[in-house]
Amino acid sequence: MIACVKHQNKRLASPEGGFTIVEMMVALTVGLFLVGGLISLLVSTSAARTELDKSSRQIENGRYALQLLSDDVRHAGFLGTYMPSGAAATAPDPCATAVVNLGFATSPALQVPVSVYGYDGSAADPSCVTDRLAGTGILVVRRVSTTGVPAASPVAGEVYFQSSSCAPLAPPPEAAFVIGTGGFTLQQKDCATAALLNKYMVRVYYVSSCNVCAPSDNIPTLKVAEYFLGAMTITPLVEGIQNMQVEYGIDMDNDGGPDCYISNPDLPAAGEIATCINPAGYWATATAIQNWSNVMTVRINILARNNEPSGDWSDTRTYNLGLAGTAGPFNDRYKRHIYSAVARVVNAAGRRETP
Known about the structure:
Blueprint: H1 21-75, E1 88-90, E2 111-113, E3 116-119, E4 138-149, E5 160-163, E6 177-180, E7 197-208, E8 221-228, E9 231-239, E10 241-250, E11 260-262, H2 270-274, H3 288-293, E12 295-305, E13 319-320, E14 326-327, E15 336-344, H4 346-349
């Protein structure tokens, strides 16, 4: 018997398929939300990173400016091996370039310039400062270089200070030191070897309204006018420094420590004088040079500002600048911060300490 098998033709389901239009619309919508979220995250991260970079630069600039000024103040008054005991103090023009106008003298009497000097925000600019930001202070530091130069090899045209360690000086006090571009004949302690030379330095620190001023970039900048080869040369130091105010610690009892702080020893405010003890011989309201010679510490207040504005920021703060008062609110889009430090004038204060 032959079995007949009946085959049925069945249509197999196709393994391939597609999205419906509704599914495609839903997928596209979800994808757009994801892309939008990623773009928003990228933008916010980039903006946060930009603000962090601005803040980091501001912190670095503020701290660097404070360290730069503090370090120079600590070296103020350094005169090599010379100890100016009994020398009269002078406060010459900080922009003077002729040797005879630098404030040093050995005849008819010894005199040396004060270690630090300053101008408050209301004072007129020294002649070598042409772009100071209105209302900011000026700090002048005088000293000689801590690196000695052989007497036989000075740089032509540079001004050097040479002091004698050969005792006794003959005749005193005329042989105590020499300052100038030549005539360096003083000797070391053995009275045979020529004494080393130290480059004379005067630095006038101030806040300028611009870093590059022609044309102006309107970036407030800490600058220095520095004595170099017989001329004052201006150099930008730190961008973003918008204000600098200086206070001076006055020694009232000759122990090398500050007893009160004054914003302007030339003409202190009545309220500042009232907070100080006034023993005769260490403070004189009518003798500014005496007050400057008693400056033992310097308190430096720096207001640092971002170089670029922040789009979502409005600066409605006020900033305490010590005895000079407050600054702000500026009501602009720049972020700011105050930095402050007290630097000791070691060479002046150390000479008054009792061992």
